[in-house]
Amino acid sequence: MKFLDQVRLFIKAGDGGAGCVSFRREKFIEFGGPDGGNGGRGGHVILKATHNLNTLIDYRYQQHFKAKKGVGGMGQNRTGAGGDDVTLKVPVGTQVFAEDNQTLLSDLTREGEEFVLARGGDGGLGNAHFKSATNRAPRKSTPGTDGEEKTIWLRLKLIADVGIIGQPNAGKSTFLSTVTSARPKIGNYPFTTLHPQLGVAAVDGSEFVIADLPGLIEGAHEGVGLGDRFLGHAERCSVLLHLVDGGMTPAEIAQGYVQVRREIEAYGHGLESKLEILVLNKADLMTSGDVERKRRALAEVAGVNAMMMSGVQGDGVTEVLREIAVALAYHRRDNPEAFRADPDGVRLIERQEEPEGLPTERGWTP
Fold it and tell me: Exposed/middle/buried for 170, CB within 10 Å: 0-12, 13-18, 19+?
């Protein structure tokens, strides 16, 4: 299935049905009086969030949606039937923007949440509505009102527990394919990943969703390489897993880390304050001497000691997953103001107590 995270739609709600002019006609009743019914309401266009979808690809080719008109009123005081609503299903995490693509109208973040994009027109009034003591036989009715029509933008920001960030070719897709059943495209060249990938990882009885985001380059927060779109997906994540390419020189490693953090901070939207697990990847390409030099260079600019991992060989992968599980447990304690930088690669809190059901020895400096 192809991934699509932004679409432009034209929507039109149904018009209301017209009111009816009718008079009661019955044997032996000379003056039956007006009995024209009201028109039915036009159908709404409704957006509904569902966990069964993770892309907007359904709206790639069909971008115009119109709800049904209301049925006109009828004699014998019969009100016309309302027009059928049109319900558009979208992934959880979809945002609705106005035609300018800037004004946020709604943000659907929960399963089953609904938002009325366009309301159907009200039905017109039949002549029975206008009957009065001075006008016993009105021949007046009103047409139904027009349904709303507008152009909107849908923008998807994936909801995942963990977002993998880093420069291109840092081993993000390899890590995702190692710890989940996802099968992203993997290659030894930058920008192998062109759109986010999702997978479910498990460790020690805990499960969490991981999103592999395309690599960040300089100017990403301004849209270079579609970076602002990718950073938008990271907004929804509770924890960031920052992978650094260990195959580079110590100077390049330090420079690369600073560049990614600069883009995150420039983008804003709370990304800079999220929990971050720092991992030096591709340990299989380093000698013991390289490991110390590169970890030291990275620690000098990051202020934390990075964890070591080889996504290809699987070394250190389980330890990284356990750190993610614990970081998520702390995040769910709803105490974000207590987090601080930790020297073992995780920006965590000064512990007050360990979450229940998790190991008590984490190796963090209190």
Answer: buried
Could you read off the pLDDT tens digit of each residue along the chain, which spans 366 residues? 466 778 999 999 999 999 999 999 888 887 888 999 999 999 999 999 998 887 888 898 899 999 999 999 999 999 999 999 999 999 888 989 999 988 999 989 888 999 999 999 999 999 999 999 889 899 999 999 999 999 999 988 777 788 888 888 778 888 888 888 766 555 444 444 456 777 788 888 888 888 887 766 554 434 444 445 667 777 778 888 888 888 888 888 888 888 888 888 887 777 778 888 888 888 887 777 788 888 888 888 888 888 888 878 888 888 888 888 888 887 776 544 433 334 444 444 333 344 444 333 333 322
Greatest alpha-carbon span in the chain = 109
Distance CA 148, CA 339 (A): 47
All structural domains of the chain: 1-156 (2.70.210.12), 162-349 (3.40.50.300)
Q: At what angle do helices 250-267 and 288-302 cross, to 10 degrees?
A: 30
Report pTM. Answer: 0.66
- Are 50 and 92 in contact by the 8 Å Cβ rule? The answer is yes
